[in-house]
Each structure stands twice: as C-alpha cells, then as structure tokens.
Specification:
Its main location: cytoplasm. Belongs to the glutaredoxin family. CC-type subfamily. It is built from five helices and four strands. The protein has about 100 residues and is an alpha+beta fold.
C-alpha cells in the first residue's frame, strides 16, 4: 500500500490503469479533455504491477483499474469519477488539487 500512496502523491492527478482496459482509456480521455495532464501508471506494464493491483484491491477498488487519485486522495474508480464529472463536482476537485487553473 505504501507504493500506491507514494505514487498517488507525486502529481495532482494519478490514474492507475491497464493499457488494455477500455474503461481506463475512457477515464484517461476524460481527464485529457478537461485539460488535465495526469500521471498514468500502467500496472500491466510495471514490474510491481501485481503488488499495485493487490494494494488497490485492498483500498476497495473493484475492479482495481481505473483507480483515480486527486490531490493524493483516492477518488474512486470509473463509476465514481463519471458521476463526479456529470454532477459538476470533478472540476472543483481538480481545481482544489491544482490540476486546473481556470
């Protein structure tokens, strides 16, 4: 879990993803279209990917990817992030974390 916390706190937005996951791709696109440049951790291409996946599952990520952290805090997986986007609260989270300036 320490590796996830360390990685999640390195940038304003961190997305744990798998390169072959369509929901991960959709979430990454959402952030890019918002003007955010997130750190992307492709766990299927990381040498510690299995450990990261296990740690994400222990945090309650089900499925483990995509897992989104904003300001070092776990926001949720695809369903939660899309809900926040649709109700307008994602932008505020991003601004508060310094990922958006406008």
């Amino acid at each position: 879990m320490d590796v996830v916390a360390r990685l999640a706190s390195q940038r304003a937005v961190v997305i744990f993803s798998k390169s072959t996951c369509c929901m991960s791709h959709a979430i990454k696109r959402l952030f890019y279209e918002q003007g955010v440049s997130p750190a992307i951790i492709e766990i299927d291409q990381d040498m510690y990917g299995k450990d990261i996946e296990w740690a994400l599952a222990r945090l309650g990520c089900s499925p483990p990817v995509p897992a989104v952290f904003v300001g070092g805090k776990f926001v949720g997986t695809a369903n939660t992030v899309m809900t926040l986007h649709l109700n307008g609260s994602l932008k505020k989270l991003l601004k508060d974390a310094g990922a958006l300036w406008l």
